[in-house]
Amino acid sequence: MNKFKQLAKLGTVSALAITLSGCMGGGPIPSASTPITQQEAQQGAQYHPQFLAQFGGAMSGPQAAYVEQVGKNIAVQSGLGNARESFTVSLLNSPVNNAFAVPGGYIYSTRQLVSLMNNEAELAGVLGHEVGHVAARHSQRRQQAAQRNSILGVLGAIGSSVLLGDSGIGETLSRGFLQGSQLLTLSFSRQQELEADDLGIEYLTRAGYDPRAMGTVLASLAAQNSLDAQLQGRDNATIPEWASTHPDPASRVQTALNKAQGRGGTVTNRDTFLSRIDGMIYGDDPAQGVVEGRRFIHPDLRLTFTAPQGFYMINGTRAVTVQGQSGQAQLTLAPYNGDLDSYVRQQFRTLGGENNNLAPATLERTTINGLPAAYGLARVNNGNSQVDVAVFAYEFSNNQAFHFQAITPAGRTATFTPMFQSMRRITQAEANAVIPRRIDVVTVQRGDTVSSLSRRMAYETGQEARFRVLNALGSNESLQAGQKVKLVVKGR
């Protein structure tokens, strides 16, 4: 089920968000932990299906089974009673680099994060980090804090710091724009992240893995974060896809490597790991739509649009987010009864929240590339400034509509006009041409170089930089014949 269809079926966001915790993000390390309680297990079972819906669903097949096996094996090292049976380990069909833990023994990694890893020890380290959060009951502690300070207020503050300031209306509006999957989790404290790193290193050591893997996977995350900022044209790497749920991994790399010094364990299982992830989808799954530069195309829903120059897109499970210095927008959908005018007015009411009777000052009808459309605009006081809120909706059938919701500084709504006007249906031929990217593990041959192999990466820009980050290669590192490396290629 694609992300837009999932949206209408999801339950309340706030209850789920308070319970989840994303990481890959000291205190004493317990030698044994209290077994997972029945109450914790029930709580995890309640939120698990909602969480899967938020993050693209659980993958199946040999790759998912491999991740589950490694996760359960490392969970045994936690000392939790019946750890192997008590933990549920899921590989998520998400293009975001992240891993998560839910109370009750539910741990997750996205396929994108797995594809960034370079050996089994790194996979075990990430999953062990998540097991550490469960064993230390970090989610429960953060949930208690969240009950005192609503998670939605926290998310609103994240968005308002980018554009809107911290007034009430700013927080409420931002909340509507921050419901992409990567922002629907409550961050652990820095102390809890460091404690989970410690626990992950301890579990790696007990299992015989190279404990340095925790540091090396954090280094890859930091490098990917920096590369994403560069490719998206951001000035810095402080707002990555997973920034709201992770402390900067670069600041944790050396700490993790130092703590691994002098510990036993040398197993990495690099070749096994690479053989198991060969063929894994990389980046966007066409079933959820694909971002190609500034263009978004969804072959199943048969639509496409182009973001404005200077903006970048994040393809979340529930919405496509468009971000830039002069505004932010999302494409999503809501229940539609065939009346575009009422549909637009309802989106304003949703954005305004219960305490703000937000309504469009103007509401007009038009046609965009053959699609019936309606759009509304409202100017909102936001502290000492004003912002413009726009909703632009398109009718694709009698029972299906999609809409952009956008926020800009007052008078700057025209920034998004080219994007609003670019929405169109795609042909079947265009839909058929959308081919997923996949991991292709190859053996370096004599004469192969970083430069020559990078040219096989299925991207028009940043080929060598992407290749180096994907394979954890430093800027001056070269390749050796017989070495296995990952490429990203297009293929069904």
TrEMBL record:
E.C. code: 3.4.24.-
Alphabetical UniProt keywords: Hydrolase, Metal-binding, Metalloprotease, Protease, Signal, Zinc
UniProt GO molecular function: metallopeptidase activity
Enzyme class, spelled out: hydrolase
Cofactor(s) this protein requires: Zn(2+)
Residues of the LysM domain: 440-487
One Pfam family it belongs to: Peptidase_M48
Keyword Signal attached: yes
The UniProt record lists the keyword Protease: yes
Signal peptide start-end: 1-25
Protein name per the record: M48 family metalloprotease
Organism field: Erythrobacter ani
